[in-house]
Amino acid sequence: MRRTPFYRSVLSAEPPRSPSEQETDGFLGYRRWVRLARRFALEPQYRRLRRIVLVGLLVRLLLAPVSSWDFDTPGFVLSGISTVYTGNPYASSLWANPPLAPYLAAPLLAIPTLLWGPQSLVAVASGVAPVTVVTGVNATFLPSPIALLAWKLPLLLADLGVALLLYLLPPRLGLQVPFSREGLAAAWFLNPLVIWSSAVHGEVDSLAILLVLLSLYAVITEHWYSAGLLFGLGVFTKAYPLVLLPLLGVAVALWPSASPPPPRQWLRRAGRLAAGVAVGVVAFLSFLPQTFGLIVSKATNPNFGGMSLLILYNRIAPGGATGHWTVPTYIPTGLAVLSVFRIMAVLAVLLGAGFFAWRLWRRPSASRQERFHWLFLAALWAIVGVLLSDSVPQPENVVALLPLMLLTLPAPARWRRLAPYVLLSGAGLLMYWAFLTPLAMLYPGAALAGPAGVAWVNGVVLAYVHSPLLHGVLMTCAGVVGGAMLLLVWAHSGWLLLPEELRPRRGEVSGDRTAPAPATPV
Amino acid sequence: MIGRLRRPRLRSDLARLATVGSLFVVAVLVLQSSEGPGALASARVASWAGLPGGTLQVTVEVSSHRPWPLPIRAALLPVVFAPTATSVYVLEDPNYPALFGTTPEVAALVSFLGTEFQRFGSSTTIATLDAAQLPDFLSGNRSATLIVANYGCVPSAVLSSQNDSLGSWIRAGGRLVWAGGPLGYFEEPAASSAGGPLPGGMGWAGQVRLLGFPLADPLPVGSEGPQSINSSPMLGVSPSPLAEGLGLAYNGTPFGANVTELTAHGGLSLGFESAPLSSGAAARTSIAYLPVGNGSLVYFGGAVNDPASQYVPEGGVRLAQDVAVLLAFPFTPTPGPVDVRNFDLGPFGTQQVLLQATPPVRSEGVLVQSNVAGAVLFAWAQAVPY
């Protein structure tokens, strides 16, 4: 019997299609996309979702053209322009991620490049120099609004894609979640940290986690080519999805098949997964050294940051800030401490895959919902371990955890279950705002208002910079809260993933999911 | 009917995905094929003529190979081309204190230079060495280029009150590119733990030991100290003619060369000059070129930051870009006028531009660059074939 293609399984009609819609879908289902979009846009049952999407998109579209952060965002735009001209996002030496995102933005950046030339996309705003000289943060390069929008548009769409997945997946997979699916979508789409990451900073984390979620869904629905393709593209967006490779290996070997397994099923699966990955590898073959170098440099970086309990001092704090605080503020990390967190990360990756394999092997009769839950938990545990060991505080990376935290939230509904999610998001946002105040993100908008606008923002920022105690307190709060929440998520998800047979005490564990929920067939 | 509904137009969705995947791969590979020398644009000297009075006219033809507008800067420069390319060595040592930037930035500089040299079609080679290797390096490699960026100090084995191997090497024909702090201010043993207190050294006497005169102005006597070694404005504001001709961007001047002292000793300002100081002292330049014996010094007025935690905006990026332009082609600047033309080439366009100057000596070269939003994506240089 012909299996449902992956794109159809994502877009499967909800509710069932009317007879008038029973026609061929067109190439890759574009007609199905159109029908689904029309349904979401017009039918009353999706009213709440529409409101969430409209509010979220409106906020993003207002922020995206007038905001940027530090030299990151200008660097992203410049790397996109480099890609337009040379096909190499690393030509400007300002891109420090794998190469997919600049290629997605390049067609959008090519339009204004063709119409107005590349010099219209980035300008030097010398008025920002006083803040840069004192702080080392922010940049005198400011992308134009059209350039900012061109870079960020794929990321905003990725945000929307994750929101729609959070809306569609729980009923389809039978996952018990404590809130309505509109609530899940809103928790993600209206999360200020998510909005910051995509619409302000221009980081590609939501694109990476979208590809990861689709890849995991493809594993669940046994679309191995698609799983490999999406996984490969995820790695070429941000390197961290690579830590899910052991998990994918376990799924290839042990994921129960819906139909009677053919001989050497694992070999067929592995081959199809590899074929899907090969598409991305072949396309970006010339950038494999850079991608590999990024992964190695992150893993061996002697610096330690992350959002850990050790963030009491930040090397790139504005001059005169915590460095001049009267109490000792710098705790040397040292190789021993660094090794602890790096070991925790490796444990999470390997043991997570191992626990997942144990559960699949020892409980072949487990419900589908339980298996889905273990898969998402294992992915969550692997990624949070990597974040704990990161070399610098990168709150935008926390975005990768948020959908997985939402999908693994236990029922019944208790608002306190959402506390780690809220606190982690808040700490991440606070860490950015504590650098130079939220106003510093609005330099592109201020530049549109002229030198007076830039000068006004400078005044506020410099006044804050010259308040070292306030800066130090905020950074410390962000680090302590963020680090504590990361540790809590790491410990809790690891505990939930640990097989019952291996736990110190048997019996029902608070928060464990033992009762499968009624599911909508995939 | 249900059977017909289940059958897609194409026989297999796998075939559809394979088609889309192949198109994606092909599109990416085609875009990547625009890398490499000559892929973005090409240039040539179409004609030249010497006019009465010593004026030189050069017609340069530039062609774009891209479907997008390409900004072009063409310049006629007073430069002398060496017969062969040089070898560039970069001091890169994670165990050595980087006082004016970071060691990862040095590693990024090395990687960037290698990429840029390749992009420009340059035959300049690049390698790294650590602090312990410097003494042996200086005993040979007389015509090489040594970059000391971000560190702001060198081992006392090559420069101290008792040792001037570095100076001897420069005078014998070496080229030193120094970025970060006053020249020779700090010295440190070859292997030292980074992150400690500022090392000692000859202080402001170091540059005099090396060059014979104070290139950067020391502070007034009595106000020495690591927190106050800034003696200059932080940024230059006025590009020199050679800065405009070479398309240079680094404008940090916290330790910038005194323009008056520089030119009095036969040097040239290549960078951005600050305003004269309120004390009446001369302006500083962000990039200075100074012939020293048979060799030369390229001195940047800063690097990324200074020990007082002040930063040059985009210092690392601009420094790397300028070093790439200065070292990719085997020319050295000489005094003389500069003629610069900026224009945009249309998609796949070709344009000729007339450059004209009256050089005091028979030394001219043409430099054509395309600076796209701050990144030099194309550069070509050639001596005018007199």
Q: Major sheet of chain A, described briefly?
A: 2 strands, antiparallel
Number of helices of chain A: 21
Largest interface chains and counts: A-B, 58 and 53 residues
Content-based structural category of chain B: alpha/beta
Q: Overall mean pLDDT score of chain A?
A: 81
Q: What does the average pLDDT of chain B come to?
A: 84
Sheet with most strands of chain B = 7 strands, mixed
CATH class of the largest domain in chain B: Alpha Beta
Strand percentage of chain A:
under 5%
What does this structure look like?
The complex is a heterodimer of chains A (522) and B (386). Chain A has 522 residues and is an all-alpha fold. Chain A has one domain. Chain A is built from 21 helices and two strands. Chain A has helices spanning 6-10, 30-42, 47-63, 72-86, 100-116, 129-135, 145-173, 181-189, 192-201, 205-220, 224-235, 245-254, 265-283, 288-300, 334-362, 368-388, 402-407, 419-436, 443-448, 451-465, 468-497; strands at residues 122-124, 141-143. In chain A, strands 1-2 form a two-stranded antiparallel ribbon. Chain A is globular. In chain A, 51% of the residues are buried. Chain B starts with a helix and ends with a strand. Chain B is 23% helix and 29% strand. Chain B has 386 residues and is of the alpha/beta class. Chain B is globular, with a radius of gyration of 24 Å. In chain B, strand 5 (87-91), helix 3 and strand 6 form a beta-alpha-beta unit. Chain B has helices at residues 2-6, 13-32, 103-119, 134-139, 165-171, 205-211, 241-246, 259-264, 315-328; strands spanning 41-50, 56-64, 70-77, 79-81, 87-91, 125-129, 145-149, 153-155, 175-179, 186-188, 238-239, 257-258, 268-269, 272-273, 284-285, 287-292, 295-300, 331-333, 339-345, 350-357, 365-372, 375-383. In chain B, the strands form seven sheets. Chain B has a seven-stranded mixed sheet with strand order 6-5-7-9-17-16-13. In chain B, strands 19-3-21-22 form a four-stranded antiparallel sheet. The chains are: A mainly alpha (522), B alpha/beta (386).
